[in-house]
Amino acid sequence: MRKILAIATNTFKEAIRDRILYGFLFFAVTLILFSLVLGQLSFNEEIRCTVDVGMAGISFFSVLMSVFLGITLLHKEIEKRTLYPVLSKPVSRPAYLTGKFLGLVLTMAVEFALMVGVFLAVLAIQGGSPTAGLAAALVLCFVEIVLVIAMALFFTSFSSPFLSGLFCLGLFVAGRNADMMSQLGKKDTLAWLKPTFDAVGAVIPNFNLFYPSGKMVEGSWATIHDQFVTSGYMASTILYGLAYAAALLLVAIILFRRRDFI
């Protein structure tokens, strides 16, 4: 466990120094601040506009940063051969990849906290205040980040950076539209494709679950705009995201152990 924590700490220190990461953070903060302008252009919908734009910006740039970090950090160590001295020591490949994963999660937790801090400050300027629903939406957003990091490490464990990025972003877009695919299978003209749509929807991660604006049902958790999702929905979605991330990380470890770096 000490070795895993040491690798996680080193990964965090390495990732936090990456200048491109601060570029993503700059654009995310700019978009959140721009919601002030958009709020002034809306008609008595300043807070709603701020929340919509802020949450969209946090989610979008968090995914981009997670994909970038998950792909580049491991690849850099392979290319620069800094990986070899680490693995030559009594550090197993599973411990190494697990440490990398935890370090990336910690890095994104810091970046996420910074974006949320700016977002809450802008919300306060507009006269709004955090709600239990907004907190629930932010929790789901961070679970989504954890899943994306695991997905990035999974693809990087066997593929090139370019293909890994392509696979990650493509799978994310497909996952955000997983429910749409199941609806397409119900159309009469596409009924013959229903088994295919169902199979794809069952395999790919359903990222639409982490953005529950289209799944509002009455319950105990107020969401962003005074609508509701149940506490059961929160628990099942968090469990789904963490279990899927753990499965991807496990497969990544298996592939990484079989990879030849010579």
How would you explain this protein's 3D organization?
With 262 residues, the protein is an all-alpha fold. It has one domain (2-258). 75% of the residues lie in helices and 2% in strands. It has 10 helices and 2 strands, in the order H-H-H-H-H-H-H-H-H-E-E-H. It has helices spanning 2-16, 19-41, 46-79, 83-88, 93-125, 132-156, 161-176, 178-184, 194-203, 231-258; strands spanning 221-222, 228-229. Strands 1-2 form a two-stranded antiparallel ribbon. A hairpin with a 5-residue loop joins strand 1 and strand 2. Helix 3 (46-79) packs antiparallel against helix 7 (161-176) and helix 5 (93-125) packs antiparallel against helix 10 (231-258). Mean pLDDT is 80; it is low at 214-222.
Number of strands: 2
Structural class: mainly alpha
Strand order of the largest sheet: 1-2
The main sheet comes to: 2 strands, antiparallel
Helix tally equals 10
Unreliable stretches (pLDDT < 50, length at least 5) are 214-222
Shape: globular
Rounded Rg: 20 Å
- The run of helices and strands is HHHHHHHHHEEH
Mean pLDDT: 80
- From the N-terminal CA to the C-terminal CA, the straight-line distance is 27 Å
Kindly estimate the percentage of residues that lie in beta strands according to DSSP. under 5%
Tell me the helix content. Answer: over 70%
The total tally of domains equals: 1
